[in-house]
Records
---
Amino acid sequence: MIPITPIRLTVDCVVFGLDDTDLKVLLIRRGIEPFLGSWALPGGFVLPAESVEDAARRELEEEAGVREVFLEQLFTFGEVERDPRGRVVTVAYYALVNLHDHPLTAATDADDVGWFALEDLPALAFDHDEILRVAAERLRGKVRYQPIGFELLPEKFTLSQLQGLYEKVLDRTLDKRNFRRKVLAMGILIDLDEIQQDVAHRAARLYRFDENLYRQRTERGFNFEL
Amino acid sequence: MIPITPIRLTVDCVVFGLDDTDLKVLLIRRGIEPFLGSWALPGGFVLPAESVEDAARRELEEEAGVREVFLEQLFTFGEVERDPRGRVVTVAYYALVNLHDHPLTAATDADDVGWFALEDLPALAFDHDEILRVAAERLRGKVRYQPIGFELLPEKFTLSQLQGLYEKVLDRTLDKRNFRRKVLAMGILIDLDEIQQDVAHRAARLYRFDENLYRQRTERGFNFEL
DNA sequence: CAAGCATAGTGTGCTTTTGACACTTTGTCG
DNA sequence: CGACAAAGTGTCAAAAGCACACTATGCTTG
């Protein structure tokens, strides 16, 4: 006897993006009830023929025009009363994107899309503030022992940009020399022997993240803690 | 327009237990189709009126007689083809219990219950081998930077027992003196000024885990890495 | 074209943490 | 009372972490 439960399943995505000053999160303005007109995380119902992760990617593209991103499962929120539409369980994902690579386009159930600094958020629909809080916590935890975050930067970046990213995620300042020593010791960055163009002051060297080196180090149980 | 999807939601629990020699996992023998007669993780459908975590606790008690345990969400498995009954998404949890405190009783949809060493598992129903693999990996990862695992021991325990636990979870030997130095430096153990009874050789001091001390340390950003 | 300025880039010394290592103590059992 | 099984204990050397300040470079502006 299999009970046919009226539980419905959704996905929600917390997309983190970085601009020059802030760590931001992508929100959409809802074009449908409930919470019509409220800001919310992009997301929606999982279709029977797609995996839950595929649903997250689909909704992200449909509602915000964002595609091909680093996406990781965050947590499943399964409280009974979390959605006024009835019993809805949501699987939350979080994503990291380079903000400038991903121009936003509102569509489907979204009337508008935008980036919001974490410290300056509007009121959110459903329990999305809670989901976002968990996501930010996870991001901070994760960045400490895994070199994620390269997805937030352009392909070629300077060590100062990378340090800025870590400082924004961890919300504290880091010592420049110690940071450089450590991050270079990880052995997963390639010095491109190029320098920044069009900057108003001394140009910095450019580096890129090397996925192969990262995999090699990872297999050997290397520790990426900062 | 809300699509009423035929997706159904289950929970599955990976319960780790420790006996004197091995790290074990709790399995039930299924009393219903599909996979009737196969060994599987305890679990079942989420009811509309309970939270997902409550469902996990309920199933654990119903099927195996295990209650009041440390339970943490592991991962949600949402592939389309993972269940022969149709579209079933499962939220997996993992639990840590002191094996001797939890006598097992098979009931409801389970014909039998038992503890199995991680290295000596029967074939499992559904994708439960995959779920178990993810759980073991998470446990290893977690134990390294959080002092979980006390749930696996009796309330009063010796440092050797604790070390044995870590060695079984991490699957490597640790140096006795270094281990003691580190674990005592964490400042979350209380020396009970008691010694073991009824042991065939020199009796060891007993300690207990102090939750208040743990919380204090946690709030100050203390690092529990071993 | 010189001075200013904004950011890049670089090394050292001290402190703390880690990790390897072996013997003595205690209590039980036969 | 001797053998045994596990408990308990300290040192030293290497590595890692952390605090700390100046010089280099290249553009801007007066």
---
Amino acid sequence: MTNPDTTSANIIDKTFDPAEIEARLYRHWESTGAFRPARPDAKPFTIVIPPPNVTGSLHIGHALDNTLQDVLIRYHRLKGEDALWVVGTDHAGIATQMVVERQLAESTQAVTRQEMGRAAFLRTVWDWKEVSGGTITRQLRRLGASCDWSNERFTMDAGFSAAVTKVFVRLYNEKLLYRDKRLVNWDPKFKTAISDLEVETREVQGHFWHFRYPLADGVKLADGRDHIVVATTRPETMLGDMAVAVNAADARYASVIGKFVELPITDRRIPIIADDHADPELGSGAVKITPGHDFNDFEVGKRAGIAAADMLNIFDAEARVAACDGVPARLVGIDRFEARKTIVAEMEALGLLDRVEDKIVQMPYGDRSGVVIEPWLTDQWYVDAATLAAPAIAAVREGKTKFVPANWDKTYFNWMENIQPWCVSRQLWWGHQIPAWYADDGRVFVAETEAEAQAQAGNIVLRRDEDVLDTWFSSALWPFGTLGWPEQTPQLARHYPGDVLVTGFDIIFFWVARMMMQGIHFMDDVPPFATVYCHGLVRDAKGIKMSKSRGNVVDPLILIDKYGADALRFTLTAMESQGRDIKLDEKRIEGYRNFATKLWNAARFAQSNGIVGSTSAMPPAATAPVNRWIIGEVVETARALDAAMTAFRFDDYASTIYQFAWSRFCDWYLELTKPLLAEGADAGIAAETRAVTGWALDQILVLLHPVMPFLTEELWHKLGSRDHDLIVAAWPVTDARLVDADTAAEIDWLIRLVSEIRGGRAELNVSPAAKLPLHVRDADAATQARIRRQTPALERLARIAAISFEAAPAGGAAQIVVDAATYTLPLEGVIDLAAERARLEKAASAAEKEAAALSGRLASPGFTEKAKPEAVEKAREDLAARSSEATRLRAALARLG
RNA sequence: GGGCGCGUAGCUCAGCGGUAGAGCACUGCCUUCACACGGCAGGGGUCACAGGUUCAAACCCUGUCGCGCCCA
């Protein structure tokens, strides 16, 4: 009924073509609502996507982040849970505004947003969003992400915007949000405040200019000098100096504290103050204080009693010198870097330039604009982050939210405990406009609508705040805003809090911290997720961070084109070992593409043998040991995968299913059952084997589906007529009673015996084509029974002609020891006796060496007394086995003569 | 300066108290009727170094060296 196959026959093609399959299956899943099956009675499982920027395109980091989320969501969907992956995009205020402004500048009209006006500009941004904003969500589909697209969200949607406004108003009314004049990181290119997290500190070669500031009123230093030397990396800021600070403990300056200097160029008198910020060990020990343009100086200024409103602001929004107390008119309007040259030249001309030295300086740059950030004194809206952080810290301390790997909680605590007031206003147009209205007299009215503000204000003219909110202010509401908050929707009741947040560790400050604060505050103290899974960065094969400028970025879409989405997903999953950075080597992807092909071919083989998918999750009844064995192996594999997923060990998950599918199922089970399916074999056993193979293959498809959804869904339908898609199939039964220890032991023995015989043959250069007779010595009744049962398998896999329990004929032979029995392959005339002697000698020595080590350990006094009883018991068993093996190998050596 | 982490096979990485593992690469053999994007077999590691704890250490502790990242 839901068969997505559009080809006429269900025959598995000789070649596996990911591109065709992926496009077809994704459309099928999405159009049939498979990503969000209705399961009202099931346990909810919820992930909210870290919303990608609407301007973005899929890079390899997204591919990793979303692959992991999809593995989780598909796994939980298969487990029968009510799995919801909330998806959507973020309006990305500054990034989007930049993109659209650039397009406008490059367009034929070459128009600026100021020329257009706010309303027209915003219409243009929305138009852009409708046309180009879907890039990344289309690309997520290429990856196979099974998100709930039917409820896709955007942070600027009406409902979400209403939530943002409500949060702003509530925080304001709770006095957790306020307007204040403080220093911000000002981006003179975009003319907006930016977050300190958007400031990138770079080391650049700069200078340290030492200026002489003349002491006022004829005062002299203890050493007789009439000036104080201060050094600065930013000479132009001297125009805004409001003090010179010295350390109270510095004897050189003790006598001048409280006196004044004549600030050159400006002819302003500024005080000499005592402050611990001045380090006697650094430079002259005296520092100029520019409270309006330096974060440290701002604090010094406040300690000295200067109110923020009185601090001098010497730059305008574009960082040009502004008209200001004492600043000469000739300097007004010139750019800050020009001003620097001018000031230095003028100081030199005044004979006040003491000296200049080269200095590496830490320079703040805007991570998007690339220009030097100016600490600037402005009125902005601030959230009292410290108050909101307290319960967010407690939630992690109390284990309500866990970081995986756990050590990220240290990073979280460190940042949260030192959190600064959060500046949430931005001087942009694209974003949530701040719901604050001003009266001409400066009064502020904060309300959800203009009408409400007007009602508060009475019959006066109001003007709305032109600024918008920081994008993170809105995305902090993502875990509940996407579920309909502030409406108390059934979705919200059911899917908040989320189970897991999957994100890069680099986003802990930006986003995780903010979601924790807002989630707890607005959702009755319930943090937004139980687990925060932090993965690492994807680097190139050499371990270098990918960047456009280095040209070492790998495009996930190109990798998908080349190897298929499944191979890329498997690679990223297999390499994800709890937060460690991933060095992505294309060879690895190629290897997992090969794995996909391997499974494809195994399914082809099964199909050509009349094997079809099972109709029941329960395994078929089985009598043959190999069938009973594989059933047990499937169950144990499913249990191991459950354990891996519970522990968020994506790498374990991938390697467990890889090993099982390839090294167990393909290499052994399919080979061991070939004789059972051959012509002339027992019809009952053949039928049982077909049923078990079909069942086991089905289970592999289910178990692998979270990582390789396309290949597995395709094979699921190729192998049988199904009444549902694999994406909504049931996880295998994991009943331990399905594991039969006796058959497991028998197949384990068989595998060891075949491997030993193969090894011996290869080492002795016996032609792979030659079929040899096998003589068994010292086999007990149980072993003889096993040999009889497994004769067809031994004949095929070990290339044995006939098995005899009679003594081998005299003469050269290869001898194999497995457990208590010795197996002889007569090779009179062809065997290299020396080589066989060497082989046996090597094996005997190894066994003896190990036996000696074990008996040494058992003889040591402390071991048997202090070690765990299991460890002692195991050592005894191992010793017995190794000694026995050594004895038999020595006997074999003796027989060889 | 503070914090986090990493140094295990040629490469990329698991393992984190009981005899060293995987994938890739490498070597030999194999056109065996699912698969050469394959099969079979094999070589390769004083687990950075030095001390210590322990009956037992790649794994725990201390220090040294080397390499990252974050914050100031």
---
Amino acid sequence: MAKVKNNKLKARLPRGFTDRAAADIRATDEMLAKIRTVFERYGFDPVETPAFEYTDCLGKFLPDTDRPNAGVFSVQDDDEQWMSLRYDLTAPLARHVAENINEIQLPYRTYRAGYVYRNEKPGPGRFRQFMQFDADTVGAAGVQADAEMCMMMADTMEALGLKGQYIVRVNNRKILDGVMEAIGLGGEEDGERRLTVLRAMDKYDKFGSEGVALLLGEGRKDESGDFTAGAQLSQAAIEAIVEILDATAIDDLIDDTNNLTFKTAALSKFAVNKHFEDGFRELKLINDLVEGAGYMSDRIKIDPSVVRGLEYYTGPVYEAELLFDVTNEKGEVVQFGSVGGGGRYDGLVKRFTGRDVPATGFSIGVSRLATALKNLGKLGTDDVVPPVLVTVMDGDTEALGRYQKMTQALREAGIRAEMYQGNWKKFGNQLKYADRRGCPLAIIQGSDEREAGEIQIKDLIEGKRLSGEITDNVTWRESRPAQITVKETELVERVKAMLAEQAEDRAKAGN
RNA sequence: GCAGACGUAGCUCAGUUGGUUAGAGCGUCGGAUUGUGGCUCCGAAGGUCGGUGGUUCGAAUCCACCCGUCUGUACCA
């Protein structure tokens, strides 16, 4: 006989995507609710945009080709226009604001959560579909809007139970622009090298000063032997940049008592320029604003090594970082990086409107943060009790109706309950099902009980405990452990009482 | 994309220098037990050894290419 087997379709999930189970969904919902509460309290309103956008609105066409960037999932509509799945929530917001600019009251304060998609190589904790939760203020030019964002990020982290375990670090793109200019990379033609330098700086967490110094100079070889080309900067420039990265506060770098001057050895070989000065002034202002509101440097801190978002940020940039080690399911400490970040993007809406519409906002990586919270035990404690199972002894219509009625009575009393929907003829399987689902109780009524106007309530949790003491199956079956007989009319009341007892036991065990 | 490692049952893995019919544990299903979960015992199903081509009398084993997974690295709005 030929093997039909070969025709079987292989069930497989696209790589970088994941299915989420009940506990995960409930935990994430809980987390989203906490974040939303903070954003609402700050006076932000929700808005939702779709997963797809026209690719040109996302600004992701490759230069010199008519195809979108490979990093975004793209399809062609039936009129041949390119559409792409959004890769963040900021570009679609800019589109939404631009398209509705006449109806929207600026400054527009808004938040939204949603999945975003990146066509990149997935890794541990890195997916091709993941959730972000964003908040933005559109149409506010002053740095007080940026300061507010930083404070809201800090409040969000605390609402999630992370008080004292995070830091919001703030920098300004103008500072970095000033540095680029100072080391001679300020020109139009140096764009590519500037990017290389910024990317190298962004690797500071990963490779430390030495690794970054290599990337700024000759280049770096990784452990598999692969070589990454460097930015070929001068020794003086490399040292100056490393000084910035090593600095823990901006005051370590700058003396502002009389005019602005660099304090450190390598940096002071370069002159302070306009960009740098502007950036510095803005940072100072943010610092004063947040401190004035009571957010000291243990929560929000100026840090000149923050790089972030190379493309569209124009001013202040900020990110939230966790201060504890995150271990994965294998027990290894993983490089976690930031769990959220953002900044000022003054040019994004202008692309559509031609009008200056300054904006600032940040994004929380929901999936990553959820992983971290789970590790801390601050999330994922699934306290939803599985349903009470009403077992089926007789399958005739009338009997089924009675079981269904019992189930309904429990539901009406606010108790999760279900009638067994499998093959009722194998009664053992019904209890096996209940056991594996973790059902707290099973309701049993056969013809004997029926005639006596009674039902049996079986405590499956207590029964499981007792099973350890019984080795003989006949005894196990006949003793009907943890099972009581009650009047049919007392069903709801007795079930309620037994569930309450179990809840009490769980609470005790938890302490 | 680049570099390296690895692909054997649903899962975790054995499989000798290339040699008969590719194994184990766990899980699944059936039975012992038609009205009672767990334990125990008995039995069964489940594999074109990632794919294709090549070398060979003979390939899970050797070679080439492809696909996939993992690790590092690049890119990451």
